[in-house]
Design goal:
The chain has about 300 residues and is an alpha/beta fold. It is built from ten helices and 13 strands. A five-stranded parallel β-sheet has the order 3-2-1-4-5, sandwiched between helices. A four-stranded antiparallel β-sheet has the order 7-6-8-13. The protein has a two-stranded antiparallel ribbon with strand order 9-10. Helix 5 links the parallel strand 4 and strand 5.
Length: about 300
Amino acid sequence: LGALRSHVAAAPSSSKGTLLVVNRGEIAIRICRAAAQLGIKTVAVYSTDDAACLHTKKADVAVELSGAGFGAAAYLNQEAILAVAKEQGATLVHCGYGFLSENAEFAAAVEAAGLTLVGPPSAAIELFGDKTKARELAEAVGVALLPGTTAAVSVGEAKAFMESLGGKPIMIKALAGGGGRGMRPVLSLDELEDAYERCQSEAVAAFGNGDVFVEQLMIRPRHIEVQVLADGQGGVTHLFERECSIQRQNQKIVEIAPPPPSRPPSARGSSTTPSSSSPRRTTAPPRPWSSSWSGR
């Protein structure tokens, strides 16, 4: 919440503004809690079927997204959300993660309405929200990448890409995705069509955009992240690296900071064969696949 804290520090106590929380569940609850600690009024939104959800009780005001649809669809309805912001006099908008948090169109609409988005500017979201553009930038600055497409692909183009790799495994990924959603590994050509359709469906439901691209699949990598924070006033820092390899269905379960050191192949091989005297393994092994770069 670096941008949120910067806004508060620069504002007099009587003008900290009102924060519209565009999410639900635990994410919205954590945002409401942080805002309350900073003395900022919060407005929660909810779909008709989420009326009893806990996040509606943690905000100062809760407003139904009437006519916006049910479930996740309501939290993607930009027109309804901006209408609530105007109605409630919100000055700040926080999307948490998922839903509209990586939607450049929504970020631009928030900026055009004269509101402050707690997060990156629309230009940055547009660049990094399009994973193929992000790949191009990574390549331009010298980041090593595995082969991948530079635009959205059809199922036929995905097949041609996989064939160009000699049938090696690939990962289908949502072009506008993030957070591990909209990703499907394809280990053989006969799996591709079904994985493509499932990935597209998940991408539409989660991000409102069904475009996908493909990358060569790296088998049993380590997933290491470095989170970068900026305060909107020129201050930029990072929180060092974190081990995020322990996942279920591409969703991180445990993050370890700092990451354990890498082990040579010989050590890895010996550690996977338990003996009667060795301690029982208590954590899940890293997932067996990932794309070459998470794009986050």
